[in-house]
C-alpha cells in the first residue's frame, strides 16, 4: 500500500523541510511548486522530495502532484503542516478497513487558549457535520480520486468540495491522530476575526453562493480570482484555510 505525499508550495522555505521530514515512511514525497523565489524547491530537493512545477493555485497544484504520483494512495499535506509520528500506520489501518479516504484531527502550534478553542471547533465541525479542510491532511485512494476528477478549479473550498464528492465513492474516516499546523493564518488577522470570516464563508458555501462572491469576502472588497480558476462560468460552491 504505497502512499505518495503531495505538498503544494509557494515561498515556503521556512516550513518545507520540516513538512517533508514529517512524512517519513512515505513511498515518495512530491513538492508541487508554483514559482517560489525563496529557494523552496532547492530545500525540498535536498530534503529528499521530488519537485515538479505548476501554476499557482492549490487545487491545480495538488492535481498535478496526483497525476505525477506513483503510489496507490495520495496524501495531501500543506507546507506548514506536520504529520504525526503514527501517520503511516494510522492511514494504512483505515485503508485496510476499506475506507476510500480520510483526514486527521487538527492541532495548532504554537498553542494558546484562543487556538485551543479553534481546535475544538474544528473537531466538532468534522465529527458532527463531516466537514474537513485541506489543512487536516486529506488522504484518498488514487483510483477514487481520479474517478471523481480530482480537485475542481475553485479559488476557495476546493478541499471541502472534493471530500463531498469522495464520500459518494465510499466511507470517509476522521482519524484520532492529529496533524500539527502553523498558527500563522490566524496570527495574521487575529484568531477570532479569522474564524468568524471563515464561518461566514463556509455558511455561504453551504447555501450555494458562487465562488467569485466567496473569494471577494475572503480577500475583501472587489477582489476576484485570476482567470481560469472558476468553473462553469463562475458558478459552484466554492475554502478558507480553516
Structural summary, described in words:
With 242 residues, this protein is of the alpha/beta class. It has a single domain (3-186), classed as Spore Coat Polysaccharide Biosynthesis Protein SpsA, Chain A (Alpha-Beta Complex). Helix content is 40%, strand content 19%. It has ten helices and eight strands. An eight-stranded mixed β-sheet has the order 3-2-1-4-7-6-8-5, with helices on both faces. α2 links the parallel β2 and β3 (50-53). α9 runs antiparallel to α10. It is globular and about 40 Å long. The model is unreliable at 227-242 (pLDDT under 50).
Helix- and strand-based class?
alpha/beta
Percentage of residues in strands: 15-25%
Q: What's the CATH class label?
A: Alpha Beta
CATH fold-level assignment: Spore Coat Polysaccharide Biosynthesis Protein SpsA, Chain A
Annotation field: number of helices: 10
- Determine the CATH superfamily: Spore Coat Polysaccharide Biosynthesis Protein SpsA, Chain A
The residue-averaged pLDDT reads 88
Unreliable stretches: 227-242
Q: Using DSSP, what is the number of strands?
A: 8
Largest sheet features? 8 strands, mixed
Record the strand order, biggest sheet.
3-2-1-4-7-6-8-5
CATH architecture heading: Alpha-Beta Complex
Give the N-terminus to C-terminus distance in angstroms.
30 Å
Based on CA atoms alone, the radius of gyration comes out at 17 Å
Helical content band: 40-55%
User: What would the principal axes of the Cα set say about the shape?
Assistant: globular
User: Quaternary state, please?
Assistant: single chain
The domain tally reads: 1
Amino acid at each position: 500500500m504505497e502512499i505518495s505525499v503531495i505538498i503544494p508550495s509557494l515561498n515556503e522555505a521556512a516550513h518545507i523541510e520540516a513538512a517533508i521530514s514529517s512524512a517519513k515512511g512515505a513511498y515518495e514525497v512530491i513538492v508541487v511548486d508554483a514559482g517560489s523565489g525563496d529557494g523552496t524547491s532547492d530545500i525540498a530537493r535536498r530534503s529528499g522530495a521530488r519537485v515538479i512545477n505548476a501554476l499557482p493555485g492549490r487545487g491545480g497544484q495538488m492535481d498535478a502532484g496526483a497525476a505525477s504520483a506513483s503510489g496507490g494512495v495520495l496524501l495531501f499535506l500543506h507546507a506548514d503542516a506536520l504529520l504525526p509520528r503514527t501517520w503511516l500506520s494510522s492511514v494504512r489501518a483505515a485503508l485496510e478497513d476499506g475506507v476510500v479516504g480520510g483526514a486527521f484531527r487538527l492541532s495548532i502550534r504554537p498553542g494558546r487558549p484562543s487556538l485551543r478553542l479553534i481546535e475544538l471547533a474544528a473537531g466538532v465541525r468534522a465529527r458532527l457535520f463531516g466537514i474537513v479542510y485541506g489543512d487536516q491532511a486529506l488522504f484518498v485512494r488514487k483510483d477514487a480520486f481520479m474517478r471523481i476528477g480530482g480537485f475542481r478549479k475553485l479559488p476557495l473550498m476546493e478541499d471541502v468540495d472534493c471530500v463531498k464528492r469522495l464520500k459518494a465513492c465510499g466511507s470517509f474516516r476522521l482519524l484520532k491522530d492529529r496533524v500539527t499546523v502553523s498558527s500563522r493564518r490566524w496570527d495574521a488577522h487575529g484568531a477570532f476575526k479569522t474564524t468568524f470570516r471563515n464561518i461566514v464563508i463556509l455558511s455561504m458555501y453551504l447555501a450555494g453562493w458562487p465562488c467569485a462572491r466567496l473569494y471577494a469576502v475572503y480577500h475583501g472588497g472587489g477582489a476576484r480570482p485570476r482567470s481560469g480558476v472558476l468553473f462553469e462560468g463562475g458558478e459552484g460552491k466554492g475554502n478558507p484555510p480553516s
